[in-house]
């Protein structure tokens, strides 16, 4: 079995070697054929290129020949055209010369004609100027005659006009004097009438001032009566109700010493004692005089008091005017509470409780 395998292996190797040699031989044959074909193609290509060069050379020869023939024909054509152009130019020059000669003759004739017309025109103008001069001399002579006649006529008219004006001026002077006298009388009448009207106006103003003063006094009396009535009503209410509420009264209810007299004596002493806690050396009378007198004279209290009167009682037109004038003087907007300027609108109804200005 080993021998068979070895023999088989050797046979395979020999077969492979034979195949390799066969392939190598075929390859060499292919290479030889390829080299031969390439050499044949190169020879063919050389012949083809040589034939192509020959054709190109022949084409160039033919082209040069055709170019020479064309150039000769073109040259001949140009020479013929130049000859014809020369003939045309000669003909044109001849015509231009003839035309110039005709134009020169025409210009000469026109110049002579214009000269003739100018001479005729100058002659006509000279004749016209002479005729005009003669006419002007005749017209000037006529004008002088008319001027002399007109001057004589004007002298006569001036003489008549002067006489008429003298007569008219005398009449107008009389009329002017009469008018001046009448004007002075009218001025005097107007002056007397003006003085009378001024006197009436002054008397009327005096009566109005007196009447306004009486109205103001009446209004002031009404205000005083109203204040007195309000104060009496306030004292009555304090006497009726405040005594019962002693110890619970808010600050500022008692405004002056007169209101304090409404309360019993022990309440008065208690009230005055409460005001002398910080001043042991002062008497009750001195304390009362110190605080109540300041309240009575206080401007703020007076303004608040007047405000309540205006709220509680309807105002008259005179009071409204006085209040508006006072507001304007104090730079306060109308319709606000006087003295406060807080922007609060005026409301109806009295307020019996005043804001206290005391230091306690």
TrEMBL record:
What are the UniProt keywords, alphabetically?
Cell projection, Cilium, Coiled coil, Cytoplasm, Cytoskeleton, Flagellum, Meiosis, Nucleus
The coiled-coil segments of this chain are 61-172
Extract the InterPro entries matched here.
MNS1, TPH_dom
Residue span(s) of domain Trichohyalin-plectin-homology: 3-251
Recorded GO cellular component terms are: nucleus
Domain of life, per UniProt, equals Eukaryota
User: Which residue ranges does the record annotate as region Disordered?
Assistant: 316-360
Cell compartment(s), UniProt: Cytoplasm, Cytoskeleton, Flagellum axoneme; Nucleus
Tell me where it mainly resides: cytoplasm
Q: Residue spans with biased composition (Low complexity)?
A: 319-331
Q: Which GO biological process annotations does it have? A: meiotic cell cycle
Q: Where are the transmembrane segments?
A: none
Composition-biased stretches, type Basic residues, lie in: 350-360
Q: Name one Pfam family in it.
A: TPH
User: What family, per the record?
Assistant: Belongs to the MNS1 family.
PANTHER family, per this entry? MEIOSIS-SPECIFIC NUCLEAR STRUCTURAL PROTEIN 1 (PTHR19265:SF0)
> What is the documented function of this protein?
Microtubule inner protein (MIP) part of the dynein-decorated doublet microtubules (DMTs) in cilia axoneme, which is required for motile cilia beating. May play a role in the control of meiotic division and germ cell differentiation through regulation of pairing and recombination during meiosis. Required for sperm flagella assembly. May play a role in the assembly and function of the outer dynein arm-docking complex (ODA-DC). ODA-DC mediates outer dynein arms (ODA) binding onto the axonemal doublet microtubules.
Q: What is this protein called?
A: Meiosis-specific nuclear structural protein 1
Q: Which organism is it from?
A: Streblomastix strix
